[in-house]
């Protein structure tokens, strides 16, 4: 696995599109922590942040052959932000006594 450490993001995306699990593992190691910290900063809760980042990586793996990714970190960061906003949207549908005045 250490042989992929020096690969660029573009190289990793190409390998990922070909189904290379080691490329996925390297992407995960490279970006999990920063994506988690970004999500936690926006949510304030580690549990939701972990879940969102996991969902983004699961989606990346499942849809690896159909995604066209030019800038890997920008893609992942945008996916995390989108999931955070969707979580906000779901929580907005809480009973009226739980919504801010």
Structure description:
There is one protein chain. This protein has 101 residues and is an all-alpha fold. The protein has 4 helices and no strands. It has helices spanning 9-17, 21-43, 46-62, 72-92. Helix 1 crosses helix 2 (21-43) and helix 3 (46-62) packs across helix 4. The longest helix is centred in the first third of the chain and has 23 residues, at 21-43. It starts with 8 loop residues before the first helix and ends in a 9-residue tail after the last helix. 18% of the residues are buried.
Q: What gross morphology would you assign?
A: elongated
Main sheet record: none
**SSE string, helices as H and strands as E:** HHHH
Rg of Cα set: 16 Å
Q: What is the strand content?
A: under 5%
End-to-end Cα distance, whole Å, is 52 Å
Number of helices: 4
The helical percent reads 55-70%
Structural class: mainly alpha
- How many strands appear in the DSSP assignment? 0
Unreliable stretches (pLDDT < 50, length at least 5) are: 93-99
Average pLDDT works out at 86
Task: Give me a quick take on this structure.
With 101 residues, the protein is mainly alpha-helical. Helix content is 69%, strand content 0%.
Secondary structure: elements and pairs:
Blueprint: H1 9-17, H2 21-43, H3 46-62, H4 72-92
Helix pairs in contact: 1-2, 2-3, 2-4, 3-4
List keywords for this structure.
mainly alpha, 101 residues, disordered C terminus, elongated
């Amino acid at each position: 696995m250490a042989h992929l450490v020096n690969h660029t993001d573009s190289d990793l995306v190409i390998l990922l599109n070909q189904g290379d699990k080691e490329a996925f593992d390297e992407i995960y190691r490279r970006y999990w922590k920063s994506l988690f910290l970004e999500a936690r900063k926006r949510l304030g809760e580690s549990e939701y942040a972990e879940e969102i980042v996991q969902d983004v990586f699961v989606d990346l793996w499942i849809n690896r052959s159909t995604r066209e990714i030019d800038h890997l970190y920008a893609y992942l960061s945008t996916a995390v932000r989108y999931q955070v906003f969707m979580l906000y949207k779901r929580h907005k549908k809480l009973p009226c006594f739980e919504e801010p005045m």
